[in-house]
From TrEMBL, chains A, B, C, D:
Residues 60-195 form the Semialdehyde dehydrogenase NAD-binding domain. Belongs to the NAGSA dehydrogenase family. Type 1 subfamily. This is Probable N-acetyl-gamma-glutamyl-phosphate reductase, chloroplastic. It catalyses: N-acetyl-L-glutamate 5-semialdehyde + phosphate + NADP(+) = N-acetyl-L-glutamyl 5-phosphate + NADPH + H(+). The keyword Chloroplast does not apply.
Length: 373, 373, 373, 373
């Protein structure tokens, strides 16, 4: 049973969680909101040729918050997508402007002008990506038509909102965000009980685009170039979600050390993860587990032994490269994984999710080769 | 008559020059070598459905010099190309290595290992891209089978070699290189006699990838970051070719001032061009001429008035953005054009050429949206 | 007669212009405001030992607008200055904060906290540097005590304000700003009638710090890194001042073409200047004129022939490196000069001016070797 | 008792180790070679005025390996040093060249031309800095005159060479290198038994200049910009020295996890260190210990609580900024320290050492304020 049917089966069994094992999409995908009415309205028995027919008409996609970096990135991916077309883009502060005036690199694309979200016409939209600034998503999503499919890239539906969220939507949200890509190598190793769940240390190095396009002194070129610094030490907003994912995998509460660093690069995130091996386990065992766990995952690549992942080798692509190395300290290992934070860490993953929701092969429109140098 | 048939007609009339007017492909394309035997063996009357049938088998492509930046870029473009597939890659110093060990960003691709050019088997190759280091191309091309189609990205067949070249190949080479993309806005304006051909000043700013992947002290990160400098002042190797192109357009000998600058960026080239207007001509006239000249060219975009082209807005794409501005000094204008030097300035343009040679729409496999930020 | 006495003699002859020939300090220095009462109160006959005695007490310096980049740079230069000490720093939005919280790189320095300019106590200040945002300087300077010496780094006293300025201060301002460093090589060549004053084309490449520390989307790391673009084409605010300086040198009105480009570097400015030689003049003549004109100027270095100036080779220093090259087009030359825009282009030049005003050797506290790499 | 006398007393007590407590100069300084004859010839009772007199003649300094980055950095620091002057510079491959042709940023300095080390005349040299490539230092140092004072910045005298070293020099070398600056915060905490010596994890982020000026593909701008990667995982050459320093502090064998990362910045190194607190110890205890340990150390700055060290805030300076933060995982802490790898991590520290050897205040010529932005 392929990924798609695997997905479909759980999907139409009344659940809203994606049950594709290998990339742990059930817990790792970004916020993925499906109202009951939407889920039930999706045809259960759509076969591939029916899907193709449907696809030939293309699904109509809205991008809410199209003037930020995750917004422009989802647009970049959508303009060449064979099954989706953009029919709506909102950006309150840029309402009335063309995409070319907001993002000149998209000037060659034939796209609708930006509108304010309050003026948006959702009648010709099948699904939306929410790329809204933090703190604004909840109100807007509440106001959306019931039949819309929604993939949320924002960080609004925090874990602490679960109860409130349930009240509104009748089900818990699936809530994960880019940083949790740090968990990609950890979850299978924890599930297989190959590493200890205590003292997991994640030293993360992130590109500046993760901070968004808002004008802040701290993100000026002059404040970022040619240096590095940590930020949000011990209290980064991604930590609770990482811990929730790992806790589920471990069936026990996991607390991690997570220290992000801001780097002079626009895109990319490396997680250097320091772990303790379970008794009797070797680094080779970790390598084998990751190899078998991800062997059918197109976008997760375990490199050859000793090959070091570089962020610049996944730039602009939906790939996650990872590897595992023995530590000098006996009984420990070092895991390194890299992604493009705007693609696998945000818009690419979101599109991968919508592909699955809409019945496309999950790699549709995502096979961009990394741009190097 | 569309681009393709326009191309075809001149192509099969026994000439080897591409006669597509608007992007001045006859003079601006990169070295484009077709031996007589090759040209005549191409079916004259292939209609589109026949081409499609042929395409379904895919043309088999070799990349000579696959371990450099133009080599890896042509590979990046080819791996998603619907009509071409790579069946041969040569790199003498990396012979025997996999693409993933030479270019880890391509590790997910299923590609043949590198071989030495002397060991290459051309029996399963229809066309090759020559991405060889300067000074080595000529000997290698001489040794290639006669029936190969060749697109040469190197700078070997200099203008001074024309006579020698003719002796070997029975026809003159078409020889243009990335820098001559500087000529894209100039040639139509000269042809239309809107600007003077004297005192044309081209101030060019280039990314470091143009210097190749060879290990040189001058191109170390530490020697390039956070600074700018000019190089090759007045004697850059691209000058003769620029001057030849402009001279042809002017029907008189043109000498230009060309000063390249090396910038701390991996990709991109901006040409800031200072020109004198012909008597009675306004900047608006230049704008109109460029608008009409390039209106049907998918990859050349004249921006809206006052919009400034940025190199980062074409990064990773085959687009050229340009615009024209009035100078403070009456009777003068400033023209700015930007490209990605590895795409429109090298591998993308080369692929555009092979598309035409092979009867594909010229944009096939080239519709990458720029990667920003 | 040395620089110092040269300066003194003109200084106390009732004029306010610095009459040091070689670096054209009379016209090229930044805004240099001296009220009559100040000038006359300065002892005319101070000899060097008297100065030393005075110096042993150190002059007390205020920095107005200490939270911006020119402010922090003047502080960097002052903390190691043997004759000046900072006794006041103002920054309205950061009032009450320590220097370490505003500029952590200065945290080891023992400096007063920032105050709002309206709360500043000027009773223990001998001279101030005005590093205020554009548009605010004029009002503040009017309110300063009469006995303060002032060096203004802002761009407020524009040329058009001269009449109004005179009304207030009884004398014209000396008004020059960083960009006019572009004029350093031009003025002696114009004075010597070695180049034509028509069609002077200045293609300028600037670091981002010149745009200040204000939070603007356009100056985010993600919007600047790995690219280049022009800005303010033909209407940059520095143009009138450049033209005024050149017009004075030429004794006729000069209009220049000036196109600035924003580069991914924090510091540095290169001017690539394209000029027409006067009849019978050679590039070698230009070289000789610059050699003799600047041979006694410590901070202006004409490089050896063919050596290309790099911005990174003057980073953090008060040096200007320049050179002249023959153009391919006969009768033309290319002049390249580089500075650190925050030092020679702003705070270093301002300190050089205050050194002269206070009777110090002009290089006092300015002999920082460039920081490379 | 000040640092100087503290140093002197141990120095002349027949030992060769610097016994300045706080910055742990006895163990942390770089290779510091003093032959017995040299040590004994140094006057024991030199008072400050005698030193001044001696200083007025300036010590004559040689720089061996002047064409690399640590070489140019020691030159940058020496040209403004009040007590030292450069009288010899060697660089075998650049023999006969001027400093300006090898390092244009030093072109304004009046310095001797480079010579081959075999042609060097040591008769007018009092002390040398060895900035030689790895693997060449030992032979050259053996051939030096006996009366030379030597500060070695290379990595040649590895720990395993101690016995051989002793044979030659009659005393053990003091052998520490830049990376061991990672130990600055660790050693006092280990000595005070505030942290466990097991599972110390050092995640290090380094600038590219640490890799030297040699032409390597891996260090090209295009291979480094806009990305990050780990290198030398678990087997970096600095590890043994770090472990030796910590083992000495702990009086037991310490094994650390040390993972360096190469960053797109020319200068700077951040160490993010993850430690386990000893039972009953709080992060606050660590902070207090570091505060008291380093309070008299001019170049080691413990920041205010919660202030995060940035590499860019020490660029070009000899400062080390550090701070300590509580981890999310109870019983753990995160220590962050930053330096400029070329200054505090190499040439600045070396000069600090020579200052002490020569009886200067250790900060002489080292009070450069960081260059920001």
């Amino acid at each position: 049973m392929g990924l798609l049917s695997s997905f479909s089966s759980s999907y139409f069994d009344g659940g809203c969680f994606l049950k594709v094992q290998n990339e742990i999409k059930d817990s790792n995908i970004r916020q993925f909101l499906l109202r009951a009415s939407v889920a039930s309205s999706t045809p259960k028995s759509l076969n591939f040729s029916e899907m193709k027919a449907q696809i030939s008409e293309k699904f109509r996609i809205g991008v809410l918050g199209a003037s930020g970096y995750t917004g422009s990135e989802i647009i970049r991916l959508l303009v060449n997508h064979p099954n989706f077309e953009i029919t709506l883009m909102t950006a309150d502060r840029k309402a009335g402007q063309s995409i070319g005036s907001v993002f000149p690199h998209l000037v060659t694309q034939d796209l609708p002008d930006m509108v304010a979200v309050k003026d948006a016409d959702f009648s010709n939209v099948d699904a939306v990506f929410c790329c809204l600034p933090h703190g604004t998503t909840q109100e807007i999503i509440k106001s959306l038509p019931n039949n819309l499919k929604i993939v949320d890239l924002s960080a609004d539906f925090r874990l602490r909102d679960v109860d409130e969220y349930k009240e509104w939507y009748g089900q818990p949200p699936q809530s994960t965000r880019p940083a949790e890509r740090s968990s990609l190598p950890l979850i299978p190793l924890i599930k297989a009980k190959l590493i200890e769940v205590r003292n997991i240390i994640i030293d993360s190095k992130s590109g500046v685009s993760g901070a968004g396009r808002g004008a802040k002194e701290a993100n000026l070129y002059t404040e970022i170039a040619e240096g590095i610094h940590s930020y949000g030490i011990t209290r980064h907003r991604h930590v609770p979600e990482i811990e929730q994912g790992l806790s589920e995998a471990a069936n026990s509460e996991v607390t991690v050390s997570f220290t992000p660093h801001l780097m002079p690069m626009s895109r990319g995130m490396q997680s250097t993860i320091y772990v303790e091996l379970a008794p009797g386990v070797s680094t080779q065992d970790l390598y084998q587990e990751l190899r078998s766990f991800y062997e059918n995952e197109e976008f997760v690549t375990l490199l050859e032994k000793n090959e070091v992942p570089h962020t610049r080798h996944v730039r602009g692509s939906n790939y996650c490269f990872m590897n595992v190395f023995p530590d000098r300290i006996p009984g420990r290992a070092i895991i390194i994984s890299v992604i493009d934070n705007l693609v696998k860490g945000a818009s690419g993953q979101a599109l991968q999710n919508l592909n699955l929701m809409m019945g496309n092969p999950e790699n549709t429109g995502l096979l961009y080769t990394p741009l190097f140098p």
